[in-house]
Amino acid sequence: MDYKLELVKLLVKETKLPLTEVTNLISTPPDPKLGDYAFPCFKLGKNPKEEAEKLKKKIKLPLFVSKLEVAGPYLNFFLNPQNLTETTLQAIFQEKEKYGQQNIGRNKTLVIDFSSPNIAKPFGIGHLRSTVIGHSLSGIYSFLGYKVIGVNHLGDWGTQFGKLIVAYQKWGKEKELQHDPIPYLLQLYVKFHKEAEDHPELEDQARTEFKHLEEGNPKSLKLWEKFRQLSLTEFERIYKILNVNFDSYHGEAFYNDKIEETITKISQKIPTTISEGALIIDLKAYNLPPVLLKKSNESTTYHTRDLAAALYRFNKYKPEKIIYVVGSEQKLHFQQLFKVLELYGISKEKLVHIDFGLFHFPEGKMSTRKGQVIFLEEVLDKAIHLAEKIIEEKNPTLKNKEEVAKMIGVGAIIFSDLSNDRIRNIDFNWEKMLSFEGETAPYLQYTHARACSILKKAKKEKVTAYASAKFSLLLQLEEQIIVSALAQFPEILRSVIKDNKPHHLAGYLISLAQAFNEFYHKLPVISADKELMKARLALVSSTRQVLQIGLNLLGIRAPEEM
Q: What's the pTM?
């Protein structure tokens, strides 16, 4: 049973408030002793406490609610513990790894554009945010019934490739390129910018070289293709470590032969004008800067290629929405892009920019031009190495030590990002990022492994049929707090896609793990009372299941031993 939804229906009937408003108002109290759900009565009259009392008298208690209590301006709902425990645990045992799945997105397709690193540049720590936020949201939307098309819109086109081609032609060495491609291409890119300070004509050469690339010059294309392939090989190695996959790697270059058609289509529906030799769309009426469709030298821009990509995706995938997981610094770009697409005839509801804050570094802003980059692989390697060291100290006989260390290290890095509200900036801190103490992925993974260990111990005691246990025996407060948390899991997933914020799920998993550890320390699971033991094992099994599902949806693996 979806308890929140049932209460929302009940409150809509009694208060006559709109369903959306009631859904947004009803919440979970911070202290379980205050009930399972709380409804604020401010909207019902001048004296919310009186309104809460009136509402309490009007409501006829459904079977799944044991009592109502007024706490100041709130009407608090206490769910029937026996009903809640029976329905929740039975649902988890029946649905197993599908617990929490919903058909919200049935027959709906979403295109999620995420990660999108630049070819011929290192996969830096700055790319982590888009990659893990996009990957997690893709998994959660899929779990809730949507058909998700994950697109890696590679930055594989633009003037920077003119710069790189010029740099390689002047100073490049094939042997060094093949030996260590990305650091070497970064070195050439940095050298170009240093040289251009004294020789500004290099910038003109780069623009000309990119123009040759757009026109299909064989020599330029051959170099570009080489840089692209070497980069993709490197990127795919990083994605494999993170366990991230895409349905499409169509980058900016893919749309090169669709540009003219796109400009023609756009120009037929939206007025364009020539300004200083460039083709633009004037958006002054919408308090936005103009969109540049073609530069004065006829080369294209990010906007042109993004417009071509959007029209191609709407035509090919027929999506409900296109979601762009791109940093907050690109807000203006997407406001302009979405306005042009809206003027073209695409509903603004179909376009979503999921922005996020940046990493802040003690040494200032990272800059590829200056060669100031923290490689993501370096961060992942450090985390895995630290995990190996801890395993060696605490559990040297552990099987598959390397594999478990990888799960723990990579999980720690992913969670250190996803546990933050995405709109906030993150101060990059090696110690904090690699910490396995406190509210971290290793804490969740350890809780999962502890639950697995309890279940293995029960198996040795030949106690296995706990799915048919007497759930009514789970009456202790510590047990009820876990049951209540497990029941909220489907609702938490809905809250993630409502705000497109995975930190809701990350925070929920921490609370669930804390409740489980409190229960484990206070109440014995393996005991002489066989019926109670079976009921508590059912609770352990259910918690393990939800922790595993939740971690997987964040893109983190859950080891059975640590």
A: 0.91
